[in-house]
Specification:
This protein has 2 domains: 40 residues; 51 residues, Irregular (HU Protein, Chain A). The protein is 43% helix and 30% strand. The protein is built from 3 helices and 5 strands. Helix 1 crosses helix 2. The longest helix is centred in the first third of the chain and has 20 residues. The radius of gyration is 19 Å and the shape is elongated. The protein starts with a helix and ends with a helix. The mean pLDDT is 94.
Length: 91
C-alpha cells in the first residue's frame, strides 16, 4: 500500500473528501517525521515503533581504492515491528 492508496482507503472508510483524507495523512506522517527529527521515539501500540539511532565517527575503507576514509557521525531512523504485527504476518 502506498500513500495514495492509504488516502483512498481513509476517504472511503470515513466518508470524507479526498483533500481532507490527504490532509489527515500528511499531518500524521509529518508529525511522525517531526518527532523523529527532534530525537523522539514514535510508538504505535500493536503495530510498530520508530526511533533514531546515533552512530559515532569511525574509519572505513573506500571499496574501490582501499584507502582509509573517515565516516562522519550520523543519525538514522529505524523501524521495529510490534508483537501483534509479527503474529499477524506470521499467521
Amino acid at each position: 500500500m502506498n500513500k495514495l492508496e492509504l488516502i483512498s482507503a481513509l476517504k472511503n472508510n470515513v466518508d470524507i473528501s479526498k483533500a481532507e483524507a490527504a490532509a489527515v495523512v500528511e499531518l500524521f506522517f509529518g508529525s511522525m517525521a517531526d518527532a523523529l527529527a527532534d530525537g523522539n521515539r514514535v510508538e504505535i501500540r500493536g503495530l510498530c515503533s520508530f526511533y533514531v539511532k546515533e552512530y559515532k565517527s569511525y574509519i572505513g575503507r573506500n571499496p574501490k581504492t582501499g584507502e582509509k576514509v573517515e565516516i562522519k557521525p550520523k543519525k538514522l531512523p529505524f523501524f521495529k515491528s510490534g508483537k501483534e504485527l509479527k503474529e499477524r504476518v506470521n499467521f
